[in-house]
Amino acid sequence: MSTADPTQRIERAEIEDTSLLAFYRDMNAPERRTFWACAAGWALDGMDFMIYPLVIGTIIALWKVDAASAGLAGTVTLLASAIGGWLGGYLSDHIGRVRTLQITIIWFSFFSLVCAVVQNFDQLLIARAVLGLGFGGEWAAGAVLMGEAIRPQYRGRAVGSVQSGWAVGWGLAVLSQAILFSLIPAETAWRWMFVIGALPALLVFYIRRSVTEPEIAAEARAKQAASGDRPALWEIFSGPILKTTILASLMATGCQGGYYAVTFWVPQFLTKERHLSIVGSTGYLSTLIIGSFIGYLVGAWLADRIGRRNLFLIFSIGAMAVVLLYTQLPLTNEILWVLGFPLGFFASGYFSGIGAFLTELYPTRLRGSGQGFCYNFGRGIGALFPFLVGALSATTSLANAIAMFAVVAYALFFIAAFALPETRGRVLHAD
Q1: How far apart are alpha carbons 166 and 172 in whole angstroms?
Q2: Contact by Cβ (8 Å): 86, 70
Q3: pLDDT tens, residue by residue, 18-48
Q4: With the C-alpha atoms ordered 381, 387, 390, 396, is the resulting torsion angle positive or negative?
Q5: Residue 212 phi/psi, 5° resolution?
Q6: Are 365 and 431 in contact (CB under 8 A)?
Q7: Could you tell me if 256 and 408 are in contact, meaning their C-beta atoms sit under 8 angstroms apart?
Q8: How is residue 17 annotated by DSSP?
Q9: Three-class DSSP category at 253
Q10: pLDDT tens-digit readout, 56-70
Q11: Smallest Cα–Cα separation from 142: which of 174, 98, 103, 77?
């Protein structure tokens, strides 16, 4: 059953079953194949991205680069992903979500392999930048594909559950680090980490065989082809859509800026300021990752239970509070280990609502472009945070630098989310 919202002209589906796994029980076979393809893609995506923060200490020591320069490699990856996400979203509106997903996965998998064979930091910088183009495009195509494939009653939980794959990928990266750095010298182990980052390419074979284009997207493209009215790249910046694009971009900037300020530098914080070894920090990172995974699942449930906006408001405040506790109090290592759980929980859980929220904000003909631009604009500006944190750490402690940029980012996230409309249960059409 659905109802019309007379104030916002949005058709909304009633959400009767709010249990976390209701969406999976009701899925048909094609929907489940799409779900697992997107979940696996997001997990491998997360693994690929988190490899660099985990090996950054080794690269700093090996090639004698400063923290700001090392952070720059993370920044350029994310900046390039902003461009790649916009282009990937635009491409998905023209050639289809599934085909774009395949192209982008192969792209960033190949350049992860290139990262494994570079001979100096400048080459690594370039390789990470080019990799970022595919990295951003993959999210744009996958998020739209998932959002359109799932019924509105379950969209928040389904898309949110897919996003929990990021924590799984993060965990795989940490596990790979612990094994490789225990078995082989650090100057070789970091290269094998990037080789592992090429594994997502194998997922393409499954996608080609098992995943079909959402009917709503295919119908929208058919209408465009018949009328000759294809969306322009810049159409998301015109008319009433402009306000949505600005606010959604600011929201995405805040949520990702805070996340990257924390997760990019926490491994270095543990080894540099808490004096833990690379292997010794694994337990602390594991607690953080477990909290992140649980946060994704709880966030997915809350996205349909209390709405997308309420999820964002609650978790942004929680993230600010925990970051300050984690970085500013003179905690014992034992307490720090425990506090890693709520840090991961609040710093990750809100992402469960982002994909569904952006999907619901835009009409189908502009969904790929709009969603791809906003999320990846936020990723691009948020990309500055690893660099800025690294630069600021030259004049203050790394802990202070992380806290300052994370709190500013989460405050922006709160304000922008508050200004946007609630979209929970919105029914999508081939418009």
Answers
A1: 10
A2: no
A3: 677 777 888 888 888 888 888 887 787 788 7
A4: negative
A5: -115, 160
A6: yes
A7: no
A8: -
A9: helix
A10: 888 888 888 887 788
A11: 98
Rounded CA separation 347/296 (Å): 10
Rounded Cα distance between 427 and 4, Å, is 10
Handedness of CA 419, 421, 424, 427 (dihedral sign): negative
Q: Which residue has the tokens 């400048």?
A: 122
- Rounded distance, CA 339 to CA 307, Å? 27
Strand locations in 287-333, DSSP E? Answer: none
- Are 389 and 325 a contacting pair, CB within 8 Å? no
Q: What percent of the chain has pLDDT over 90?
A: 18
Structure tokens at 346: 């609040």
195 φψ region: left (φ > 0), alpha (ψ -120 to 50), beta (else): alpha
d(CA 217, CA 208): 17
H-helix or E-strand containing 267? helix 266-272
The CATH class for the domain spanning 29-213+236-419 reads: mainly alpha
pLDDT tens digits, 185-219: 988 999 999 998 887 778 777 887 788 877 766 67
- The pTM (predicted TM-score) of the whole model is 0.74
Task: Extract the tokens encoding 358.
Answer: 């952006």
8 Å CB contact between 299 and 346 = no
Question: What is the rounded average pLDDT of the residues 259-263?
Answer: 86
Question: Which tokens is 379 given?
Answer: 């990723």
Calculate ∠ Cα 35-40-43, nearest 5°: 125
Six-digit token pair at 117?
Answer: 């064979």
287: CB partners within 8 A, 6+ apart: 337, 338, 340, 341, 344
How confident is the model over 390-402, as a mean pLDDT?
86
Confidence of residue 322 (pLDDT cuts 50, 70, 90): very high
Q: How many helical (H) and strand (E) elements, i.e. helices and strands, does the chain have? A: 19, 2
What's the CA gap between 151 and 149, in Å, rounded? 7
How many of the other CB atoms lie within 10 Å of CB of 153?
A: 23
Judge whether 303 and 351 are in contact, CB under 8 Å. Answer: no
Quick check: 8 pLDDT over 50? no
Q: Supply 431's token pair.
A: 């418009």
Q: Are 301 and 402 in contact (CB under 8 A)?
A: no
Q: Which two tokens stand for residue 368?
A: 């790929």
